[in-house]
From TrEMBL:
Domain Pyrroline-5-carboxylate reductase catalytic N-terminal: 2-101
Name of the featured protein: Coenzyme F420:NADP oxidoreductase
SUPFAM superfamilies in UniProt: NAD(P)-binding Rossmann-fold domains
Keywords: Oxidoreductase
Sample GO molecular function, one term: cupric reductase (NADH) activity
GO cellular component: plasma membrane
GO biological process: copper ion import
């Protein structure tokens, strides 16, 4: 398959490129095509040293979307609207996968319609930065993307609990469970296959797109647990 990573020059883009680039054609997408090609060349070199003749190219986000069969949206939440507006004219039969998480440091929302509030931390034990899931009005970033994409576009939500550094470390086998939300059984089947392409990863069905907020909210939870308990690059396994 031909897979585009929109925001592929970011932290998690490297891991996806190195893991999937062993089996699939990869397109690194960025707002700047020259920057994308620079990173693509770096990823090709890494895989070449591992014995893989990978087909990894770089392009701007719009062209990457047009050329791909699978499109992974791996950008910051606040960039969603401009990205979707950019790529909408070239959306066809691609399957989109969102790894986007709306979260803020030291800022929590009580509910989608509530005003944001900063929760004071007074105890010395917990006097540290923390992250909160800031639920969009649509319920999740995934549902917001669904509302912006053309009707009928295939969309799934996954990979929110994967630590980027470990994903990019090819010496590691990642014994993680990956939740997948999608309304289409076809989309789930394709995403399950991509998860299984990464050694020891196990895909789990976590429901329709309406359940995506539960997946997205795991990201700040994991970051907070790691920071407060002096752990590093942790993930989730259901046992």
């Amino acid at each position: 398959m031909k897979i585009a990573i929109l925001g592929g020059t970011g932290n998690i883009g490297k891991g996806f490129a190195l893991r999937w680039g062993q089996k699939h054609d990869m397109i690194i997408g960025s707002r700047n095509a020259e920057k994308a090609e620079k990173f693509a060349a770096e990823y090709r070199d890494i895989l070449k040293r591992q014995g893989y003749n990978a087909n990894i190219t770089g392009s701007d986000n719009k062209n990457a979307t047009e050329e791909a069969e699978i499109v992974v949206i791996a950008i910051r939440y606040n960039q969603l609207r401009s990205l979707i507006d950019l790529i909408t004219p070239v959306i066809g039969k691609q399957i989109f996968i969102s790894v986007v998480v709306p979260m803020e440091k030291n800022l929590c929302y009580i509910s989608p319609n509530a005003e944001p509030r900063t929760i004071p931390i007074t105890s010395d034990q917990f006097n540290a930065d923390y992250f909160c899931f800031t639920m969009p009005e649509a319920g999740s970033a995934t549902q917001e993307i669904e509302n912006m994409l053309p009707a009928g576009t295939e969309l799934a939500s996954a990979f929110h609990t994967v630590p980027a550094k470990k994903l990019a470390d090819l010496e590691l086998e990642l014994d993680y469970d990956i939740g997948v939300c999608a309304n289409s059984e076809y989309s789930k089947k394709v995403v399950f296959g991509l998860i299984k392409d990464i050694s020891r990863m196990r895909p789990l069905d976590t429901g329709p797109l309406e359940a995506a907020a539960m997946l997205e909210s795991l990201t700040p939870l994991i970051i907070n647990v790691a920071a407060r308990n002096k752990m590093k690059d942790i993930s989730i396994k259901f046992i």
